[in-house]
Amino acid sequence: MDYIKIPMDIEKKSFEIIGEEMGPHDFNERQLQIIKRVIHTTADFDYKNIVYIREKAIDEALSILKKGTTIYTDTNMALSGINKRALKKLNCNAVCYVSNEEVAKIAMERGITRSMAAIEKAVEDGVEFFVFGNAPTALFRLKELILEGKSKAKFIIGAPIGFVGAAESKEEIEKLDLPMITVRGRKGGSSVAAAIVNALMYMIVER
Amino acid sequence: MDYIKIPMDIEKKSFEIIGEEMGPHDFNERQLQIIKRVIHTTADFDYKNIVYIREKAIDEALSILKKGTTIYTDTNMALSGINKRALKKLNCNAVCYVSNEEVAKIAMERGITRSMAAIEKAVEDGVEFFVFGNAPTALFRLKELILEGKSKAKFIIGAPIGFVGAAESKEEIEKLDLPMITVRGRKGGSSVAAAIVNALMYMIVER
User: Fold this and answer.
1) Nearest by CB to B164, which of A4, A140, A144?
2) ipTM value for the complex
3) Better-scored residue on pLDDT, A207 or B157
4) Among A113, A162, A168, whose Cβ lies nearest the Cβ of B14?
């Protein structure tokens, strides 16, 4: 069978097709890198209309990444989708606490989601860079902790997916005056969240 | 803020909404569990039209899962999305070789994708249950190995996503007379592939 076998050729060709098919837009070059990578990850051109990139959000994200940071993700899937070589080159690391035993115990005792208990731990740890691909409850909880002045959050990717609370969680977080990238409405997900992190890292380092 | 904080309540409510919004269909109860879980994972009702479940594929998948098996996934993201508690209850395990050092070395030497080299190792290991969420090249390679009589594949989830080769890889694998579930066209992905595995496992075991 005849098929392209070189990974970088496949990605390059994919991005060309996406560029051809996505039609007219007002994105600048860096925004476009994010939008295209999300479409590449989902094969869904709807993301062209629902990814919201706040002014200066990319600058802030890159500035945090460049100084080396801990990225908190709400799911192990998002964590696993983040390019580890790029992360290492940036002297950054990524963590997720939902499978943490202590977190599971606290969630059980308090009748809250593990995602919520996990975000509390991340906030205690002083995390500045947050990535949400799944859990509306975690995003709601982060907003509460920010309003209480407890969080050091400086940049947020808000992309919870789903039918219960996801859209609302993103509307709520957008009310904060913080650099952020969100996916509006029901869509988003761990793959999308990881794709946004990767797009940002690839603006600074080669893979 | 007032929001649902109990994970199982959130999922139950989500599935109700999906059922209400998805409209008329001809799926039976087990097929519907797969379709709904995929929509739950993507917030994309298009999956109602593009998930292809071959006759007896569910029976075969459940029969393999019940005897305890190794599930091969083409990405660490798909691996990470598979419910580990359900897997353990079934006495099954899941593996992915794309980060395997030996596999990376072989891919580099031969100028092929790591996904292709990884599938060769899985085939050598005698894997029967294959899950593809990302790599068209791996699915093409598996078909070649099956035609050469080298693979013991008994059930395939074919859900590579993307713009180069993804749709074609699924058309090719469908030509084989094997129990399979595929996602037609460009869509699919690691989250979708993992959701299908989970839907199958939840037909047999509680989470």
Assistant:
1) A4
2) 0.90
3) B157
4) A162
